[in-house]
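Quick one:
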Amino acid sequence: MTAPLIVSAGSSTHAGLRRPLNEDSALANAPVFIVADGMGGHEAGERASAAVVAEFSPYIGRQSLELDDVLDALSRARESVEALSVSANGRAGTTLSGVVLADVDGMGYWLTFNIGDSRTYRLCEGELEQISVDHSVVQELIESGELTALEAATDHRRNIITRAIGAGSTGDADFWMFPAELGDRILICSDGLSSEVADDQIGAILMMESDPQTAASVLVGEAVHAGGRDNITVVVVDAVSVASRPGVRMRADEDIDQDTRPRAAAVGGMS
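Output:
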């Protein structure tokens, strides 16, 4: 059975110009595309982000995932990072943002999740939209009206997050689910990109570079050129074949393919 959503992806990472270690980790293999930004220093953050990626890696090769699959991986990841925190004196932690491919009644969907201040964006019809919401002090101040988005970009509290996996946090991930459209481009990044490169510039690069690997590499290069004050990791995912409604498949190289094969089971609902 053909997958309801087929993608092409690229990824790139760089330690930046000021950090001795790259504590980011990423996974960019269907159906899982995630970025984890570790924290804790002395290799604790590097191990924490790698532990989270390790819990999602067994899903590689599946056509799609359900919400319960993601919840199970998050639960195992939290246990793994908490075990690291004990050995690292309570310092190990990581953010996590990303998307998995989902199937709802045979139609392709993006299942997006986030905890911390790494981000997931969607570029659709030339418009770049941040899907995830930062779990950070400055985001809370923006929402309360105490800071503008422009002020938040330079506020001294901009790196303080309010949720994480590990690091003493018990906050849950947020989830979003929406139908995939042919031509969708998903960007997942650590804050090493978003803190150095403005959204309008990110959007311009994503529109200019058609190859996802090239786009990821160029974005990382822009962040390094802008100062590279943190680790930088970027994953770019393109929807190249989408079952947008039952029995109808859209592909980038042709218009409509009538697919009469049986539809897959629907993904589990979200609360």
